[in-house]
Specification:
Radius of gyration: 14 Å
Strand order of the largest sheet: 1-2
Shape: flat
Number of domains: 1
Largest sheet: 2 strands, antiparallel
């Protein structure tokens, strides 16, 4: 799991310690919060993510 998060975020597995990942209800990785960055207002960020869902990709469905 650590390697998958590292690949998706462009970090190395060794630099993930302390990183927080916010995933929306649809399973999209929406943001990462690094321990070296100032902490955001977590609740405001979560409300914004829920209020602004990502549109599903088009053309990715199953077709015959």
């Amino acid at each position: 799991m650590r390697l998958a998060y590292a690949i998706v975020t462009g970090l190395t597995p060794e630099t993930l310690a302390g990183t927080v990942f916010l995933v929306d209800p649809a399973g999209w990785l929406r943001t990462r919060i690094r321990p070296c960055n100032p902490p955001p207002d977590f609740f405001q960020l979560a409300r914004s993510i829920i209020a602004n869902p990502l549109a599903p990709p088009t053309g990715m469905g199953h077709h015959h």
